[in-house]
Amino acid sequence: MNAPLAPGFVNGDVSYWYRATGVPDPGAPLGGNIRADVAIVGAGYTGLWTAYYLKKADPALRIVVLEKEFAGFGASGRNGGWLAGLLPGSARRYAKDHGQQAAIRFQREMFGAVDEVIRVAATEGIDAGIVKGGLLNVARTPAQAARLRAEIVDQRAWGWTPGDVDLLGTREMTARIRVAGAVAASWSPHCARVQPAELARGLARAVRDLGVEIYERTPVTEIARGRAVTPGGTVEAGLVLRCTEGFTADVAGHHRDWLPMNSSMIVTEPLDDWDEIGWDGRELLGDTAHYYMYAQRTADDRIAFGGRGRPYLYASRLDDRGHTHDWTVDALWHLLTTFFPAAKQAKVAHAWSGVLGVPRDWCATVSLDRATGLGWAGGYTGHGVAAANLAGRTLADLALGRDSDLTTLPWVDRRVRRWEPEPLRWLGVHAMYRLYRLADAREATGTPRTSVLARIADMITGH
Ligand SMILES: Cc1cc2nc3c(=O)[nH]c(=O)nc-3n(C[C@H](O)[C@H](O)[C@H](O)COP(=O)(O)OP(=O)(O)OC[C@H]3O[C@@H](n4cnc5c(N)ncnc54)[C@H](O)[C@@H]3O)c2cc1C
Questions:
Q1: Which residues are in the FAD dependent oxidoreductase domain (predicted)?
Q2: Does this model's pTM top 0.90?
Q3: Which atom of ligand 1 is nearest to the CA of 380?
Q4: 424-443 and 142-157 helices cross at what angle (nearest 10)?
Q5: 78 CB less than 6 Å from ligand 1?
Q6: Residue by residue, what is the 3-state secondary structure of 21-73?
Q7: What is the pLDDT of residues 232-268, one digit of tens each?
Q8: Residue 355 CA to ligand 1 centre (angstroms)
Q9: Does ligand 1 come within 6 angstroms of the Cβ of 246?
Q10: From the CA of 184, how far away is ligand 1's center (Å)?
């Protein structure tokens, strides 16, 4: 590895977000057969938010959450901490079946989800280092800048007002974060920084306090009408809700539903000197490269910086506890120090990876089949932190049989075709990311146009 590693550098161990407190000791597994009203599989944000809103709405319900490791083991305990009001998918695609107004309503609900998470965190006493500093998206080449401007024009058609997103002048941009080589930036207020694992941990505590049972070290081996089967016993329940996002490929019968996409992160040591960088507003930082990055300034003054790494493992294999390849750590460090040369004063303290779920059409779904009692939500394609809250509220309404504004949103009950069998899946995803890297390299030469290679990449996988 070429990146400079801090003493005590950790690779994996779920994520940096557990470093201060230690990875939680999993609670007791399910030890026998039980009956419940609702069984939820997976204790990430989706499962926990669903349990939270269901139990709040009807405290008499017996709700059990079954988790193979511990609450927050998956992407919910590993992500970049962008609590962002971004649609989990393309507005255009959501509008196809339901019309433009429905897609715009969905977008407004996503903005609202950011505030709803902040509201519940305050009400439940969850200290997740939340700061609503907005989202700064930078462009570092003329082609990226052209895309950024075009994106804002497009967003106006999908309900984004100048108060929701706007182009910044150079002075406003550098007053926020000074990214080396940035030529343009947009800013949106609809994004907050969170410490992801603290949000998951706090949510799990709040859900337990309401009386929901969470069984950990409890892998569900079969999901069927009326039951969820685990090695220690079966839960018989009228409703069984699958909330396993990036892990769904391992659930029997769902291998090709959602592609498990890897995302990797590094975190630096604390930086003493922020003068050259700024970042006083704790904005979330992204860019408009095809092989994009995402970052936050953490509550303990580090830079947490993420990107794609090795995007996908053959046959939808999953990582275990977040171990990350040397190549990825080096690539992320290289990019981080290109953005922030001043960060060279620090070293890499931790690296980790996780999986998120990508449906074939890159748009998320919330569904409940009333005939079978089986439901599911996920496929947020990397925008799951806020979306899981909206999904949880929506799944709760569906489970309660309520017709609400949420149950008519365009992501409800979508049917999406499955991914191709291997080796097509692997070839497609790897070709896409290879072309994205080539397109970024071409655009770095200064051309003002988006590389045709990126368009070919989008065509290959329907991105
Ligand atoms: C590195 C990384 C960075 C990201 N950054 C961002 C970001 O900044 N902003 C954003 O919006 N999104 C981001 N995402 C995506 C976001 O974190 C996820 O979309 C979201 O957390 C999904 O929540 P979930 O509850 O649906 O899934 P998870 O959090 O993955 O939870 C699923 C749970 O199901 C459990 N499980 C799986 N199979 C079984 C089984 N058979 N039996 C029992 N339990 C099972 C798992 O152990 C896991 O705990 C990122 C993802 C990654 C990996």
A1: 37-398
A2: yes
A3: 19
A4: 110
A5: yes
A6: CCCCCCCCCCCCCEEEEEEEECCCHHHHHHHHHHHHHCCCCCEEEECCCCCCC
A7: 999 999 999 999 999 999 999 999 999 999 999 999 9
A8: 7
A9: yes
A10: 32
